[in-house]
Automatic annotation (TrEMBL), chain A:
Belongs to the nitrile hydratase subunit alpha family. GO terms for molecular function: nitrile hydratase activity; transition metal ion binding. Its EC number is 4.2.1.84. This is nitrile hydratase. It catalyses: an aliphatic primary amide = an aliphatic nitrile + H2O. Gene3D superfamilies: Nitrile hydratase alpha /Thiocyanate hydrolase gamma. Residues 1-27 are annotated as: Disordered.
Automatic annotation (TrEMBL), chain B:
Keywords: Lyase. It catalyses: an aliphatic primary amide = an aliphatic nitrile + H2O. InterPro entries: CN_hydtase_beta-like_N, CN_hydtase_beta_C, CN_hydtase_beta_dom_C, Elect_transpt_acc-like_dom_sf, Nitrile_hydratase_bsu. Residues 1-106 form the Nitrile hydratase beta subunit-like N-terminal domain. Residues 1-20 are annotated as: Disordered. NHase catalyzes the hydration of various nitrile compounds to the corresponding amides. It comes from Devosia lucknowensis. GO terms for molecular function: nitrile hydratase activity; transition metal ion binding. It is an enzyme of class 4 (lyase). Residues 122-218 form the Nitrile hydratase beta subunit domain. It comes from the Bacteria. This is Nitrile hydratase subunit beta.
């Protein structure tokens, strides 16, 4: 299996000390590369893990379990009122009916955005996330800055996503401290009445289902 | 434990830096670390709560200086060494030199698709009625255990309202310590930002936590 080349801003990824030079970070990550290889080798040699299973796990989470799953759920909730009612009443069962089940999605609750309430999701204690619907969480969701700020300054968080909500909108932040994983159902953008369910699903972004974005109205022809 | 993991409300951690087009894994070693960790967890040797408690036992200064998958590496090594599955000298050498310890389960590739989709529910059968219902006024207890808990510091001692009843789930505080599952009711509890933080320079908002019944007292 081909490995993707390293990418991104190393200092940012490192999570501490943005002043550290890239040289330090390169050395650090070379070191982590060596340490992880050593760990895997030891565990395989001792018979605790099977490298083929590791490949299969990585492949599953890279290719099959992605935000496209959640987008299908949201689009269906926009066009099918019975499904929407089921989703709001018992999301675990409703999403299971579409085949989306599994680890970190055993107990799902769907929360709908309205003109009055905007929902956003965080895990201040670790990185809990509705994985079967959204895939693995993005780096920022797992990093201290978001986890710390979301519950004390949600509007300051949303500003960093270029989202500015009217003061009349109540923000409700869901801190995933237990076993329930929350899916935000964004509002359907205006001007999309002519779109099919598949076309609507393509408008639904990962961040809109976390609640750090909304889906803008626009030319959706 | 009042560790660095309990981040809610901390300030001055820098910008969030959203990236809408990031790859699932930033580097090859992170990708591999994810797979290794998932395969190790699939052994069934450690429950999720012991897992989390192990990450939380990383000293705060170290925790905040490590990236996400570096924390995973540290946690896995702690679990494997503390329970005698590997010796630190083996990691240094990069090869096994000690006899393997029997392990509960070795995940095979063929089991991955079904295993990933099956999950591992923490829900248990109720043995007592729920103490609270939606709309009840409650207070999060003021507790500071030195061991694992899922009651974040920012909510402790604060009054809120039960929003919904989630069901009965394994209690992490005991399960992390190997003291049993002791399942209890779990509730979504809503707090007003004024009660959590006092006045802020933005309109009041709500924060909802999911709280096991022992975290709550009636008002």
């Amino acid at each position: 299996m081909a490995l993707k080349p390293p990418s991104g801003d190393h200092a940012q990824e490192h999570g501490h000390n943005h002043d550290h030079g890239h040289e330090h970070d390169h050395e650090h990550y070379d070191d982590m590369d060596v340490r992880v290889r050593a760990l895997e080798t030891v565990l395989v040699e001792k018979g605790y893990i099977d490298p083929a299973a590791i490949d299969a796990l990585i492949e599953t989470y890279e290719n099959d379990i992605t935000p496209r799953n959640g987008a299908k759920v949201v689009a269906k909730s926009w066009v099918d009122q019975d499904f929407r009612a089921w989703l709001l009443d018992d999301a675990s069962a409703a999403v299971a009916s579409l085949g989306f089940t599994g680890r970190q999605g055993e107990h799902i609750v769907a929360v709908e955005n309205t003109d009055a309430v905007h929902n956003m999701v965080v895990c201040t204690l670790c990185s809990c996330y509705p994985v079967p619907l959204l895939g693995l969480p993005p780096k920022w969701y797992k990093a201290p800055a978001y986890r710390a700020q979301a519950v004390i300054d949600p509007r300051g968080v949303l500003a960093q996503f270029n989202l500015f909500l009217p003061d009349t909108v109540t923000i409700r932040v869901w801190d995933s401290t237990a076993d329930t994983r929350y899916l935000v159902i964004p509002q359907r953008p205006v001007g999309t009445g002519h779109l099919s369910e598949d076309e609507l699903a393509r408008l639904v972004t990962r961040d809109a289902m976390i609640g750090t974005a909304v889906i803008p109205a626009g030319d959706h022809a | 434990m009042n560790g660095a993991h309990d981040l809610g409300g901390m300030q001055n951690l820098g910008p969030i830096r959203p990236d809408r087009n990031e790859p699932v894994f930033a580097r090859p070693w992170e990708r591999r670390m994810f797979g290794v960790a998932q395969a190790v967890f699939a052994s069934g040797e450690w429950n999720i709560d012991r897992n989390r408690a192990t990450t939380e036992s990383i000293p705060p200064a170290d925790y905040l200086s490590m990236g996400y998958y570096e924390l995973w590496y540290t946690r896995i090594v702690k679990l494997l060494t503390s329970d005698g599955f590997i010796d630190p000298s083996e990691l240094e050498a990069g090869h096994a030199s000690q006899p393997a310890k029997p392990i509960r389960n070795v995940l095979e590739a063929g089991m991955v698709p079904a295993g990933v989709r099956r999950g591992n529910s923490s829900a248990r059968t109720a043995t007592a009625p729920a103490r609270f219902k939606a709309g009840d006024a409650v207070r999060a207890r003021r507790i500071n255990p030195a061991t694992h808990t899922r009651l974040p510091r920012y909510a402790r001692g604060v009054e809120g309202t039960v929003l919904r009843v989630h069901g009965v789930h394994v209690f992490p505080d005991t399960n992390a310590l190997g003291l049993g599952e002791h399942p209890t009711w779990v509730y979504a509890v809503a707090f007003n930002s004024d009660d959590l933080w006092g006045p802020l320079e933005q309109p009041s908002f709500e924060v909802v936590i999911d709280a096991w019944e022992p975290y709550l007292e009636p008002l």
